[in-house]
Amino acid sequence: MKHGKRAVYTGCAARHAGLTALLATALMPWTPHDVRAQSVCTPSNTSNEARLLAFSAIPLAFASALPKPSLGRGEIAIGVELSAIPEPPASIQRSDECFVEKGQNTQLSRVLPRPRLAVGLPGGVTAEVSYLPPVTVASATPSLLGVALGYTVPVTPSVAAMLRAHGTLGFIDGPVTCAPSALQDDPTQPCFGTEPSNDRYAPNAYGAELLVGARLSSRVTASIGAGASHLRPRFRVGFRNGFGLLDETRVEQNFTRATGMAQVTGSITPRVHVGAQVYAVARDGATVRLTTQWLLR
Description:
Layout: H1 17-27, E1 36-37, E2 40-41, H2 48-57, E3 76-84, E4 111-121, E5 125-132, E6 141-156, E7 159-174, E8 199-202, E9 205-215, E10 220-231, E11 234-236, E12 239-240, E13 246-247, E14 250-252, E15 255-267, E16 272-281, E17 285-295
C-alpha cells in the first residue's frame, strides 16, 4: 500500500537534524534504549499530508463491489476482490506542514487482495464481512476488517435499488518513512540507522451509498451509485534511529467526502459471477476493482 508521505523522521527535533545529532552523540552513553519522540500533527485539510491520508484510504473503502450485491434469504456467497493501489499525484507528494522534506517509500504494494463473505438475510437485507489477515503482501502487512449491510428494493422487473452502509477498520504496517533503501549512516540524515521503519496507517473509513442496477441481458448487469464517506485516517511513524531514539510521531485528520461508482458484472454460470468497478472519491482520486463471486447455496 502507498501512504504517500514525502517527509519523515519526525518528532520535535526533525527540523534541526544537525543539532539533534550533535546532542544525541554527546548524551548517547547515558540515553536509555527505548527513549521515545512522540508528537501529534494535525495538518490543515488542504495540506499535502492531509490529502495523502485521504488518498491512501481510497482502495481500502469497503464499498459495494460484489457482482451480485444482494442475496435472497439464506443465500451465501464468497468472493475475492483485487483493488488497484494508485500512485499518489506528484503534486501532493511533498510534505508542507508536518515533516521536513524527504523521499519516502510510497509503493508498499500495487494491489490489495481482499476476501468477501455475503449472507442473505430476511427482508431484502444482505450482510457482508471481510477480514484481511496479517499476511505480508510485497512489504505491506495488513489487518483489515470490512463490514456492511445492504437493503435492496425492486423498482421494475429488471431494475433494483440498494441502500448500503459500510465500514473499514484496522491498519496496514510497512516501511513507509524509512525503507531499507533509505537508511543512512550519516547521523545528520533523517533515516540514520540500521533498521527500516515499521509505520502504521489506519483508514477508519465509514460510509453509505445508494446503488441502482439494471439487467442488460440474461448474463450482464450494469450499476451506478453515489454516496458519502467519513474518514478518520491515522498515520504513526515507527522508526528507531542509530541513537536508539524511537520516533512515534502521529498524523491525524478527519474528512467527509462524496463518492461514486460504476460497475459491470457478468454471470459465467448461475453460481459464478465476475465484475469490474471504478470507485471514485471526490477531490482525492479513484481506483479500479476486479471481483469474482461464487454462490455456495
